[in-house]
Design brief:
This is HupE/UreJ family protein. The chain is mostly helical and 192 residues long. The chain has one domain. Helix content is 79%, strand content 0%. The chain is built from eight helices and no strands. Helix 2 crosses helix 7 and helix 4 packs antiparallel against helix 8. It is globular, with a radius of gyration of 17 Å.
Length: 192
Amino acid sequence: MHDFLFYLKLGWEHIISLDALDHQLFVLALIAVYTFKEWKKILILVTAFTIGHSVTLALSILDVVRLPSDWVEFLIPLTIVLTAAGNILMKNKKQSQDKTNYYLALFFGLIHGLGFANTARVMIAKSQSIAVPLLGFNIGLEAGQIVIVFAILILLFILLSLFKINKKDWILFVSSGVFALALKMTLERMPF
């Protein structure tokens, strides 16, 4: 139980900490087009991301997949750039954007999972089962993402309801800001 709680806390901090800006920006870009009414869609998106993250983490810990860390650090903000750009380019195509977002969340989760792979590989001993650490980490990650999503949705509700901000303006503003920050990170981390 001690191991489970340790990895649960680690998963939580992986998304909630101040060092997790890339994950937080990705979650923001991913859900920027949704509102409270669409909470089921958001939950599926966040879970798809966690599943992708979990698969890559498991494959990395088992040493099946390995990618140089400089490439991973470059690809992570690139996924954010692509997600934010998708919000801007597909702003009038909500139905096709929903389907695209599910696949992007899963696929980009695979890439984001590589970001923690080296640390996880060192932390989990070869003789140790990966089931408990992986389960704890991913529950912590999922819980952290849900807290971030909830905070974003509360902010959006306040802006839409009290301040009468137009939803399309919100999507454009948030996606453009996330795009700019992630593009800066991507250019700073170019491995070539």
